[in-house]
Amino acid sequence: MCLLPLMPLPPPERLTPAAWARLPKPPRPGRPRLWLARVEDLRGAAARLADPVLDSGERARAAALHRAADRDGYRVAHVCLRMLLGAYLGVEPSDVPLVRRPCPVCGGPHGRPDVPGAPLCFSLSRTAGLCLLAFADTAVGADIERLPAADVVSALTATLHPREAAELAACPPEGRPAAFARVWTRKEAYLKGLGTGLGRDLHLDHLGASAAGPRRLPGWAVGDVAVGEGCAAAVAVAEP
What we know:
Elements (H helix, E strand, L loop, with lengths): L12 E2 L2 H4 L12 E6 H15 L2 H9 L3 H22 L9 E2 L12 E2 L6 E7 L2 E7 L3 E7 L3 H7 L5 H9 L5 H19 L25 E5 L6 E8 L2
Parallel strand pairs: 1-2
Antiparallel strand pairs: 2-6, 3-4, 5-6, 7-9, 8-9
């Protein structure tokens, strides 16, 4: 069975308003294009573009967020997504018809995001102050997370694959937050690529905590992404 080599991935390109003005390079077969958006850099531009670019549902979801930092992060993430999709597809960002595919687990309308008929797959993830976007020619999932507190690691380790839990238990306490973040971002990127998200049992898939890289999974390539101190990120891409 073919297992794609996708470790390590290059650092993502940093998004700026100037980057929106030029046509982004398309993803190569089996190699995603990655973009990192810093909320502090794009907060003002995203606020100005939110009304003309986002659809009514996106504007409502942003307005429903109570914290200003959460509203800013949401607007930056979704304005960036629409600006890049519009550039890739040659349409106005506001005209990109974003939908959700059916969930593979329950059939509900919360599977992978999609643009019907477009030969492009994409994934978006955000954490405090940062957004990671991935574009590929096959199914793709991305995840970015701040390193968790020790009590979060303790509470969630039992939800992981038994081998991952054992790997975390073997880590020195000061290294567990980074190791847990590696496991979690790899797993969530893979599950987002599948379209199940956290609806799939976290015990089922062993991606590992090693700093050397994730374990390979049949039909998928999962790689870590360098996004700076205090964070972990990963991207999963389906075999063509």
